[in-house]
C-alpha cells in the first residue's frame, strides 16, 4: 500500500490540471542541487558566523552539516531557508540564484528543532498550511494531506489537536508538514535532538527511508557525529564558520584532514610526529611504519584498528604496553594502555577470547595501512 | 493538631476577606429589589426600581452614552494597542526600557491627574482650533488613551509566550507578509485580543474620574449620572443601576479572564 503511494509521490502523472497549473510543483518532484559560494555572515561587530563558505550539495543527496554549537551550521541552514541573508556570497538552488529571494518564495521547507507546529491549528490544518498559503484548492489539499499521512504513517494523528501529541509525534507531523509541500530541498535543523535515544534511532531509520524513497535533497544539521555517520551520504564538518572537511562518512571518520575533525569524530589517539624517515614515523609511542605517510605533523591511530596480544611479542609495528584501564562494554571492551609516558586507547571486540586485565603486560599490533597522518 | 487549627484560621480569614469585599455589593443588589424606598429596612421583593429605570429618559441616555463610549473606545484601543504590542515584541531585543516605562506610566498615574491633564489639553486645542468640543468625542479619546497600555501589554505578553520559530515556520511555509498576519498572527493572539477588548470595556464602563473631566453637558455616562443623582440622596433607583453595572462588569471581566487564561502549548 505505502509502496504505491510512494511511487505516486515520486512521479505523479502530470495529467491532473492542478499539476499543470503550478510548474513549481513539477520542479518540486525533481531533486535540486545546491551551490554555495563565498558565503559570509557576521552578527554584530565581532561574531563571525560564516567565514567564506564554498559548498556544493548534489541533487538527491542526504547531506549533513556537522559541528559543535557556534560553528555556523545553523546559520548556513538558515541562509538556505532564506531566514537569514548572507553579508556576501551567493546561493544557487536548482540552477536558480536565490540569494535574495525571501523564504516564502523559495521552494525550500524546514523541519525546525522546536517543530514549530501552529498551536491555533489542528494537525490537519498544520499539514495543509503550506499548500493553503500557495493557493492550492481545498479538495486537493485534503488529498495531499491524506497521501502524506499515509506515507509517513501518521494514522489517526491527523485528526488530533497539536497539544495532544508527544514529542516523537510532533516531530513526524513537522516532517510531514514540510514534505507535503514537495520542496526542491528539505532542511532539517537538529530534528531529533529533543527525543530520547530509542525513539531517536527509530526516527533516524524512518527519516532515511523517507529520503531514499522520495529522492529529495535533504540538508541535515546535527552536532552528533554518530547520527551524522548513520544518516548521511556526505558530511561537511564545520568549525568557526569554516568548512573543515567534506566527504562520505567513512572518509571523514577514517581519514580526517585535521586534528579538529579527528577529535570531533571521536578520536583521541593523536600523536605529534617528532621525526620521520620516509614512511617511518617517530612519536611518543615509539617508531611506527605507515603504509603511506602523508604530509601532516600528527599521527592518528584509531582504537578499533589495534590488535592487543597477551604478553610480550616481538615484531614490526609491535608496541609493548601495560593495561592502565579497562571498560567492559559487553560487545566490546575499551582499554587505556600505557606505552612509556604516552597513553593509547584501544577497542577490542569481545569474541570470547581472554580480555587482558588492568596491570597486564600486552603487545599492541598496529597495521601500517591504518595509520593516518594529518595536520593540526 | 496545631496545623489543623492554623488551617481553620486561614479558611475563616479567607471567608472574612470575601465578605469584606462582597457584602457592600450584596447590600446594593439586595436593596435594589426593596419594595419600599427605605435604605434601612428590606420590606419585600419588587422589580419597581428596575421598572422606574426603564422609564427614566436621563438614565437611558446615560446608559446609551456609556455603551457608545465603552464600545467605540475599546475597538479603537484594540487596534492601536495591538499594533503597539506587536511593535514592542518585534523590537524587544533592542534597549527599549524607557519606552516600556512610557507605556506603563498611564496605568500608574492617578486618574485625577490624567483627567485634569486631558481636560486642559482639550481646552487648549479647542481654543486654538475650535475642534474637540467637550463631549463623547473627547471622552472617547481620553478613554482610548488609558486603555491602550493595557491592550499593548496583553498583546505583547501573548507574543512573548509564543515559540519565536513559529514566525519563521509561517515564512518557510510560503506565507506572504499579509497572509502571515491573517492566517498566523491574528488567529494565534485571538484569545489575547478578546481578553484585551473586554478588559478595556470594563475599564471604560467603570471610569468616573477621567470621564467627569472630559465630558460635555450632553454626554453624561452612568457613573456621572449617579454622581449627580446621589447628591440628592441614595435612592433605590441608584441601587438598581449599580446592580446592573455590577452584573455587566462581572460578565465582561469573566470573559476577559477566561480568554487570558487560555494558554496554548
TrEMBL record, chain A:
Keyword Methyltransferase: no
SMART domains, per database record: AAA
MF annotations from Gene Ontology: ABC-type polyamine transporter activity; ATP binding; ATP hydrolysis activity
Keyword terms of this UniProt record: ATP-binding, Cell membrane, Membrane, Nucleotide-binding, Translocase, Transport
GO CC term, one of those recorded: ATP-binding cassette (ABC) transporter complex
Enzymatic reactions: ATP + H2O + polyamine-[polyamine-binding protein]Side 1 = ADP + phosphate + polyamineSide 2 + [polyamine-binding protein]Side 1
Family (UniProt): Belongs to the ABC transporter superfamily. Spermidine/putrescine importer (TC 3.A.1.11.1) family.
Protein known as: Spermidine/putrescine import ATP-binding protein PotA
Organism: Halomonas beimenensis
Top-level taxonomy: Bacteria, Pseudomonadati, Pseudomonadota, Gammaproteobacteria, Oceanospirillales
Automatic annotation (TrEMBL), chain B:
Localization annotation: Cell membrane
Record gene name: potC
InterPro entries: Bact_Polyamine_Transport, MetI-like, MetI-like_sf
Any Gene Ontology biological process: transmembrane transport
The entry's keywords: Cell membrane, Membrane, Transmembrane, Transmembrane helix, Transport
One Gene Ontology cellular component: plasma membrane
PROSITE patterns: ABC_TM1 (PS50928)
Protein name, per record: Spermidine/putrescine import ABC transporter permease protein PotC
ABC transmembrane type-1 domain: residues covered: 63-259
Main location (coarse class): membrane
UniProt key word Lipid biosynthesis: no
Family the UniProt entry places it in: Belongs to the binding-protein-dependent transport system permease family. CysTW subfamily.
Amino acid at each position: 500500500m505505502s509502496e504505491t503511494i510512494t511511487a505516486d509521490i515520486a512521479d505523479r502523472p502530470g495529467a491532473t490540471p492542478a499539476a499543470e497549473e503550478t510548474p513549481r510543483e513539477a520542479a518540486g518532484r525533481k531533486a535540486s542541487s545546491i551551490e554555495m559560494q563565498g558565503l559570509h555572515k557576521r552578527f554584530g561587530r565581532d561574531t563571525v558566523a560564516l567565514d567564506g563558505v564554498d559548498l556544493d550539495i548534489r541533487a538527491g543527496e542526504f547531506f549533513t552539516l556537522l559541528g559543535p554549537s557556534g560553528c555556523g551550521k545553523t546559520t548556513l541552514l538558515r541562509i538556505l531557508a532564506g531566514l537569514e541573508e548572507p553579508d556576501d556570497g551567493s546561493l544557487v538552488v536548482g540552477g536558480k540564484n536565490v540569494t535574495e529571494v525571501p523564504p516564502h518564495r523559495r521552494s525550500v521547507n524546514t523541519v525546525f528543532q522546536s517543530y514549530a507546529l501552529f498551536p491555533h491549528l489542528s494537525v490537519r490544518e498544520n499539514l495543509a498550511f503550506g499548500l493553503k498559503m500557495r493557493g492550492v484548492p481545498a479538495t486537493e489539499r485534503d488529498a495531499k494531506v491524506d497521501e502524506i499521512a499515509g506515507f509517513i504513517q501518521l494514522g489517526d494523528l491527523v485528526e488530533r489537536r497539536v497539544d495532544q501529541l508527544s514529542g516523537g509525534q510532533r516531530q513526524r507531523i513537522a516532517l510531514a508538514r514540510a514534505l507535503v509541500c514537495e520542496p526542491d530541498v528539505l532542511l532539517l535543523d537538529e530534528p531529533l535532538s529533543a527525543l530520547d535515544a530509542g525513539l531517536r534511532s527509530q526516527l533516524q531509520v524512518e527519516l532515511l527511508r523517507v529520503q531514499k524513497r522520495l529522492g529529495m535533497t535533504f540538508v541535515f544539521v546535527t552536532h552528533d557525529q554518530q547520527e551524522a555517520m548513520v544518516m548521511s551520504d556526505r558530511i561537511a564538518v564545520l568549525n568557526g564558520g569554516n568548512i573543515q572537511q567534506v566527504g562520505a562518512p567513512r572518509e571523514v571518520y577514517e581519514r580526517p584532514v585535521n586534528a579538529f575533525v579527528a577529535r570531533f569524530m571521536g578520536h583521541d589517539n593523536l600523536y605529534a610526529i617528532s621525526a620521520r624517515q620516509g614512511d617511518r614515523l617517530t612519536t611518543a609511542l615509539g617508531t611506527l611504519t605507515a603504509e603511506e605517510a602523508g604530509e601532516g605533523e600528527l599521527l592518528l591511530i584509531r582504537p578499533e584498528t589495534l590488535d592487543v596480544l597477551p604478553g610480550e611479542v616481538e615484531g614490526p609495528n609491535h608496541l609493548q604496553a601495560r593495561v592502565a584501564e579497562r571498560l567492559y562494554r559487553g560487545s566490546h571492551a575499551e582499554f587505556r594502555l600505557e606505552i612509556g609516558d604516552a597513553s593509547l586507547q584501544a577497542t577490542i571486540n569481545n569474541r570470547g577470547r581472554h580480555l587482558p586485565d588492568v596491570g597486564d603486560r600486552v603487545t599492541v599490533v598496529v597495521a601500517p595501512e591504518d595509520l593516518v597522518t594529518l595536520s593540526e | 493538631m496545631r496545623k489543623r487549627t492554623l488551617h481553620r484560621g486561614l479558611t475563616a480569614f479567607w471567608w472574612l476577606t470575601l465578605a469584606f469585599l462582597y457584602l457592600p455589593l450584596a447590600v446594593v443588589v439586595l436593596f435594589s429589589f426593596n419594595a419600599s424606598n427605605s435604605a434601612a429596612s428590606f420590606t419585600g421583593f419588587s422589580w419597581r426600581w428596575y421598572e422606574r429605570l426603564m422609564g427614566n429618559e436621563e438614565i437611558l441616555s446615560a446608559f446609551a452614552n456609556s455603551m457608545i463610549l465603552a464600545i467605540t473606545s475599546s475597538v479603537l484601543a484594540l487596534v492601536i494597542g495591538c499594533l503597539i504590542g506587536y511593535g514592542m515584541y518585534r523590537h524587544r531585543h533592542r534597549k527599549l526600557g524607557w519606552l516600556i516605562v512610557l507605556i506603563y506610566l498611564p496605568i500608574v498615574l492617578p486618574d485625577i491627574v490624567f483627567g485634569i491633564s486631558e481636560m486642559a489639553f482639550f481646552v487648549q486645542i479647542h481654543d486654538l482650533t475650535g475642534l474637540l468640543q467637550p463631549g463623547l468625542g473627547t471622552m472617547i479619546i481620553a478613554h482610548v488613551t488609558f486603555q491602550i497600555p493595557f491592550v499593548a501589554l496583553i498583546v505583547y505578553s501573548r507574543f512573548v509566550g509564543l515559540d519565536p520559530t513559529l514566525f519563521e515556520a509561517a515564512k518557510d511555509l510560503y506565507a506572504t507578509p499579509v497572509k502571515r498576519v491573517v492566517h498566523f498572527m491574528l488567529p494565534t493572539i485571538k484569545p489575547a485580543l478578546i481578553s484585551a477588548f473586554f478588559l478595556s470595556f470594563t475599564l471604560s464602563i467603570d471610569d468616573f474620574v477621567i470621564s467627569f473631566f472630559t465630558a460635555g453637558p450632553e454626554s453624561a455616562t452612568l457613573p456621572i449620572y449617579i454622581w449627580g443623582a446621589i447628591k440628592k440622596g441614595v435612592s433605590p433607583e441608584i441601587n438598581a443601576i449599580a446592580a446592573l453595572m455590577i452584573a455587566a462588569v462581572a460578565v465582561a471581566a469573566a470573559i476577559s479572564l477566561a480568554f487570558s487564561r487560555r494558554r496554548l502549548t
